[in-house]
Every structure is written in structure tokens, then in C-alpha cells.
Structures
1.
Amino acid sequence: MKLKKRKKNSRMRGRRTHGFSAKLHKGKGSKGGKGFSGSGKRADQKKTLVLKKFYPYFGKKGFTSRKTEKRKNKIINIEDIQKRFKEGEIDLSEYKILGNGEITKKFVIKAQSCSKSAREKVEKAGGKIILPEKKERKKGKIKGIKKENSEDKKEKQKAKRVGK
């Protein structure tokens, strides 16, 4: 004896009509689609509510991939550092330090980057923020190729003229 009968809906998946006519008896009814689609079809009954809630931002705009991260670096405010950590050295090398709040403890913080206000407040309290050294690129320098100064060029041109 069967205790639980399977629903017809589960057996009819993938079939257009679910054993009935073209539109009815599929379980969802025929409401015009998902969300607010079809809101103008039913004698404007939903439109005013939609405009009040979502105007002027109505509908989807733009796109973001699921793979993209919204913010690349983690952030932390100095007030959170004050609450969570004891005085001394802290390694927050994955974080950017922001200057929201006040700080009284003396910290030596290792961070990825920091804002000006955060640096000022930490130094005022007697601590400091250590950032990783940036590698400076020098313009026009490529290995094996030496750029000539304008003076060297002039001397070569003079030598050519004299040699002719």
C-alpha cells in the first residue's frame, strides 16, 4: 500500500501542457511572468505601487559577473582596531586601514594601505603604520637598451659632420 502519492506536477516536468490545455494547471497559473512583469496588463493595478517603491530605479541595469569581487581589499577602521586588539604590533597585511573613529592605544600596524586620516590619528597616538614598499618604475628603461642624453646625441652629430 502506497503511503504517499507523487504529485502530478513532478511527473509532468518537461511536458508543455501537464496533461491539460496549453496555459492552465501547471501549478503557477498564468500571472504574466516573474516579478513585476505583466503589471501593466491587469488594468494598471500594480503600477502605482511599483512606481512609489522603486522609481526611478526600476528594472535591471548593467551586469556583474558572479566571479567578480565587489571590493578587492578588506577594510578595517581604527576604532575597530582599538576595540579588538591590545597595544603593540599587529599584522593586518591584507587590510586597508581607514580613519573612522578615535584611537588612544599605541599600535605598530603592518597594512596593505591606509588613508591619510588613519595615518595621522595613529601617529598622533604614538604609533605608526608600516606599508609594503612600492616598486618604482623608471620611465623608458628596458634591460639591455640605454637611452642617450640629448648632449650625447649632439656630440655624435658633430662628429659625423666633422668626419664628412
Note: Residues 51 and 58 are 8 Å apart (CA to CA).
2.
Amino acid sequence: MATLTPTIYRSHTLRLTLAKKLDETIETLLPRRCMIISVSLLLAGLGIPLLMCLGLLPVNLLLGLLGFALTATGGVLALTLCGEI
């Protein structure tokens, strides 16, 4: 029967630096939740007037103001959360 010998795990510095680099790369590639929300608000605000022009939605003041409000809110959120303002 073989005896179990405890092995000492040594962390290699190269492995640690590569893991940190990989984590940083993944964090920079993934969009933040606030940016997803602001871009979706912008697209919804631009989509409502487009659907009204195509005749898929009825043309009325409430939908026009809703589209404007969504676009303005998404734009302000995008500028604020990106750090421009």
C-alpha cells in the first residue's frame, strides 16, 4: 500500500500574473449594467418614433413624449455613468 505524502502547493508568480491579467481582460470586455440600461433606453426612445413613422404604432402626443423622455433619460444616464458629466 502506498503512503500518502503531503504535497506543498507553490503558487507560481507567472500563473498568478496570468490569472490577474485574464480577470482584468474579462472585466474590461463585459459591459456594465448601467451602460446596458442606458443604451436600451436610448434604443427604445428612438424605436418608438420609428415605429410611429412606419405606421405600426398610432401617432399621438403621449407616445411622442414617451419616446423623447426615454431618449433623454438614456442619454443623460450614459453621459453621467461614463463619467463625462
Note: The two ends are 70 Å apart (CA to CA).
3.
Amino acid sequence: MTDPDATPEPDGGPGEVLRAAARRAIEAVVMVAEQPLDPHLLGQLLELSPTVVEELCHELAAGYEAEGRGFQLARVAGGWRFQTHPDQAPYVERFVLAGQTAKLSAAALETLAIVAYKQPISRAQVAAIRGVSVDGVMRTLQSRGYITEIARDPGPGQAVMFGTTPAFLETLGLDHVGQLPALGDFVPGAAVVEQLERGLRPDPSLPERLSALEETNSQRHDATKAPNGTLPPLDDLDGFDDLDDLDDLDDGEG
């Protein structure tokens, strides 16, 4: 019998026939699986080596992409699963009713991000970073299956250390935490920081400008007074249509 692990033969050869049958079997098993399937498990089911299973899965994934399918075979959380193609997200979002899936609060998302990037991390360390108590938020994330206890701190108190779960990776479509975007991608560049700092710096000419404005206002106030130092009667101001006319007094046109 021809070994399916052998190098593929030309189209129609016995080896390629066996590989085609194996690809169909992978499609069938992954279709009914509730979790991403590990290549080792698929290999046991198909009696193939994990390396060959990986090759077959990559062939299937490339074939779906070349055909422009609305779904894809993706490697997620250490296994393979079917999922909708990213460019079909707008249509999938229309199908999923708003509010059908409970969303995480901003506090929960911030806490989850801290655990994801700093794991293993204790509850007290997360609270120190956020500056608020995180007990309730951590319990929520545990109940959702996004974080779990992974170790204990060997130091005093042996605090529980938390980390993310395969469900977290599956939800984000990641194979491992190393695929999380670098934190540097979210930090503004030096030019942006410089502009922000410049906008926050006090204007050095502001005191002089305020002093000049105060002196100008004082001069205009003095110009409206009668020779004896008292304000003129209202009748004498009838000729000024607006405040700009007061400038004429400075030029001696009154």
C-alpha cells in the first residue's frame, strides 16, 4: 500500500489519491469539532504524522484562499478550525444581533490586556498597574474563561499568578501569545510627543500680552473721562456707534 507520508506523486497517482482522501477527512473532522483541533490528535485519527497533517491543512487553507471562499481554515490556539474570512466581517456583523453576545466593559478589557502582556501576574500586581481594585473584574474574566490560575508566586504569601487561556487565543484568532501586537505600536512617535509637549508649554509672551492689553484698556477708559476727571454725560457719547469709535479719541478726534 502506498504511504500517504511519501512525496506526492503527479496528479492522479496513488499517493495523491490518499492525500486527497486525508484532506477530505480533515475537513469533515474539523467541521464538527467545537475546539481547534491539535495536529497530533488529527494525526492519531487519520494515522498520519503531525507533520503531514500540518502540510495537508496548509494545502487546504491555501486552496480555500485561492478559490476566494467566504471561510478559511486557520491555525488558532495551537490547532486548526474553520472560521469566516476576515473580509466578510461586515456581513457577519449584520447577521449577529446587537447585544446577543455580552460585551466586556472597558475595565475588563484593560485588565485582560494587562494579564495578556504581563503574564504570569498576580491580582495585586494588576491592581497596582490599574490603580484600582480588580477583584470583581478578575472574577468576571475567569468566569468567561479568558484567564486562569497558572502558578503560584514562590515568594511570601505565595500569591496566585494568572495567565490567559486557549479560549482567549481562540477569541482573538491567535495561535500563541507571541502573536499579540507589540506595545510599541500603540505608543505615539517622538514627533507626536513633541507636538503634545509644545501644546502644553505656557506661552512665554503671555504676561507681556496681558500687561499690554490691560494698559490699552486703561488708556481707553481714561480717554472717555471729561477734563475734570469725571465721566462725560451719556449724551456726549451718542456719536459712538460701537466700541471701535473710541479709538478716535486716542488720535485726538473727539
Note: The longest strand covers residues 71-76.
